[in-house]
Amino acid sequence: MENAFTTTEDFLQDDSFLRYCMGVSEEDTRRWEDWIRENPDRQAPFEQARKIFDAINGQQGQLHAAVGQFRLLLREHVANTTAQAPAALTPPARGQQRRLYWWAAAAVLVLVAATGWYQYSRYREQHLATARPIHDVQPGTTKAMLTLADGTAVPLDSTGASQFEEKDGTRINKGQGSLVYDHSGNTTEKILFNTLATPRGGEYQITLPDGSRVWLNAASSLRFPTRFAGNDRTVYLNGEAYFEISPNAQQPFHVQLSDNQQITVLGTSFNVMNYADENNITTTLVTGKVMVSRPDGQQAVLAPSQQAVITKGQNRITVSDADVDKTIAWKTGMFEFEDDDLPSIMRTIARWYDVEVVYNGNIPDQHYSGSIRKTSTLSQALRILQTAGIQYSITNKTITIKSF
């Protein structure tokens, strides 16, 4: 990367920097985080540019005098850039779908720098403290509750490191946002079970006694033994998790889901979504091979980049190609939506920000696509939805979606 970034304007006129601010590109995120570490003397204009980005991104709905010109220029910019956009950002061809151009704030800032609105945005940034919403919600964090076999509840967060033991001698090492189970000190034959649970607005990571790693999404729980004995390894999941399983052909790994549905694994990585408020139970294979089973004996074996969907109340397993990047984006700090309806999107947001969602009027029968960085505050995330015509209000921890 060139080092010719000395002023705020230099950053705001760079497409890669704008993608970094919007959080739509992992490559650009890593690129700029590395760059600022290597160029600490540019910290001031770098941070100023980010603040101005947030000011424009959050206040664009209030640019009353320029709103007409803004929409015209934005449409032109979108028309010129859609053909060059990555495949994941290309809107599917369907009549009722409306694209959530959440990355379109990049176009706004390019126009700001090009037309002189930049001076206006600096004024807005200086007065941002008084313009911020009274009601806002911070994003979720790394937190969970570990329940030991005797019922002892141990709160967990992302700070500090410590070690403690289960009754059977299993050592549990707490790091920054993760647990590692070491059963080498386990001296009993009795199998003890622990449960790791994340609240709404939380996520956590765990390394199981066999070395398998699990990432728990918000509002999820994983019940597991302190050591794996016998002919298999079985854990119990509610919610959503990403698994990286240590291979062991002699001891298959099983994930038990609701309604006695089961996933059988030898050694692989995959994602499972099994939320009570979702209509589908979805298993997406990243690497290796898994078998999804129903209580009635129906089975489906997945190849990499395939997805098995079981619709609750229906007696079949549907297998199709999967968008793996979208499915596991939550694990890497993003929300990725592709052709999703508004209630589905809002359920995801509600779990991460620990809020309730109500609808004032009819729910629009439309589908949307786009990306949001999970570190955004709730108001930042929702204001970006306004580019798709979605109006909302926040009162305490309730989002009201207004009728269209």
Structure description:
The protein has 404 residues and is an alpha+beta fold. It folds into three domains: 124 residues, no CATH class; 186 residues, Sandwich (Jelly Rolls); 72 residues, Phage tail protein beta-alpha-beta fold (3-Layer(bab) Sandwich). Helix content is 27%, strand content 32%. It contains eleven helices and 23 strands. A six-stranded mixed barrel has the order 1-6-9-10-8-7. The protein has a three-stranded mixed beta sheet with strand order 20-23-22, with helices on one face. A two-stranded antiparallel sheet has the order 19-21. Strand 7 and strand 8 form a beta hairpin. Helix 4 crosses helix 11 and helix 6 packs across helix 7. The radius of gyration is 23 Å and the shape is globular. About 18% of the residues have low confidence.
Terminal residue distance: 44 Å
- Number of E-type strands: 23
Instruction: Give the overall shape, derived from the CA principal axes.
Output: globular
Rounded Rg? 23 Å
User: Looking at CATH, which topology of the largest domain would you report?
Assistant: Jelly Rolls
Number of domains: 3
Low-confidence stretches: 58-75, 81-134
Q: How are strands sequenced across the largest beta sheet?
A: 1-6-9-10-8-7
- Residue share in β-strands: 25-35%
